[in-house]
Amino acid sequence: MMRLTPIRITITIALALLCGALLPCRGAAAPEKKTALKNETAAAMNAIAESYVKLALAVGVHDPLYVDAYFGPEAWQAKAKEERKSLAAIEREAAPLIARLEKLDVSKDEEIVRLRRQFLVKQIESLIARSRMLQGVKLSFDDESNALFDVIAPRHDDEYFRAKLGRIDSILPQGTGTLVERYERFRKDFIIPKEKLDPVFAAAIAEARRRTREHMALPDGESFSVEYVTGKSWGAYNWYKGHYHSLIQVNTELPVYIDSPIGLACHEGYPGHHVQNVLSEERLVNERGWVEFTVSPLFSPLSPINEGGANFAVEVAFPGDERIAFERDVLYPLAGIDPSKAGAYSAVQKLLRELNYAENEAGRRYLNGEISADSAAAYLTTYALMPIARAKRLVAFMGEYRSYIVNYNVGYDLVKHWIERMGGTPDHPEKRWEEYARLVSAPWVPSELK
Ligand SMILES: [Zn+2]
């Protein structure tokens, strides 16, 4: 999911089998090497995983947002709907699964098995927290993000944002009105005309895919399609359908700016959500038979890694100045926008991104009941320089998805810092690809990356 503002484009892509991958095959160890004890542990973990999937589907019966994707046995889904297990019963059945997982000794197993156990513990803890919220338990913004997503957003006072706004003030063209009004005036020149949206987005997606295919092995036949929607609180959404197929929906209500196509192509597609889901299905479900990865709860410790990773994906695919060069040389001319302005626009956008923690501050105050929805929108207008229509849409998003907003920026920082600690610094773009692939091919949780 991404709070972008794109377009109108319809694409279905089928990719050929790729060779020369950076990634080693992560197939299961040869059976003869497994000890009886390891088999026992694996069987126990598989049984717990199956129970967890069924409980996640049961929560989904009460909460239409909860199950973001499911491509496991249809009979499990049907049974969950038929049973309509109470939230209290779900909670009662989930708690002992954690105790069972904690008793399993995985100290001598390979890293991915240890990660799997921790992933299941965190997923089940998050599922219990969501069940409690659905039963009326109220958590503060920070307690909620910690319980659901395994992350807490840092706090920033207004002064922190004012200093950044001062820098934006100094580089925006002078003129009358408030800073957000001046920003909006400046930004008008960078709106993609409706009739140019198709070619611009197609070029961005093709380039993001080309770059990803050069560095990551994707399974034969992976594909996605794009649909255009309105009346949603998000900008774009990737609905993963299983069998390596995604449906990407794009909200076309608000204007689309020239930086959106690369952002959307990388975040929702390559190497963002589509690739994350495809690799998880291929490596974890199909190669290892780990059924827990057939379900993706939206409220889950996987969200900071997926959303943060999808945001960081732009810098993986377009390191250094490559994004601005591609936008200036290819997308600006396609959109009929003056490429000589690309540098100035990019500089402003870079500073704007530094304001995104204002979203968490607005969300924390709004969801903690300290300020009204209107005040939250006004705060976003002042401190995140959002025009009022966009600010109101984000407040609606917060009302619906609550502390989910932390996943975009806290998740981004988490993923970026981890990949850079692993050696994937801006000077080592190949290592970035390698570590990004390692991150999205295994069941990491945020506390493991901190
Ligand atoms: Zn997203």
Structural description of this entry:
- It is a single chain.
- The radius of gyration is 22 Å and the shape is globular.
- About 60% of the residues lie in helices and about 5% in strands.
- The protein has a 3-stranded mixed beta sheet with strand order 2-4-3, with helices on one face. It has a two-stranded antiparallel ribbon with strand order 1-5.
- β3 and β4 (about 245-250) form a beta hairpin.
- With about 450 residues, it is mainly alpha-helical.
Low-confidence stretches: 3-29
Class of secondary structure makeup: mainly alpha
Total helical segments:
19
The ligands bound in this entry are:
zinc ion
Main sheet specs: 3 strands, mixed
Total number of strands: 5
> SSE order, as H and E?
HEHHHHHHHEEEHHEHHHHHHHHH
Strand order of the largest sheet: 2-4-3
If you compute it from the alpha carbons, what radius of gyration comes out, rounded to the nearest whole angstrom?
22 Å
Distance between the termini: 23 Å
Give keywords.
5 strands; 58% helix; 450 residues; two-stranded antiparallel sheet; binds zinc ion; mainly alpha; disordered N terminus; three-stranded mixed β-sheet
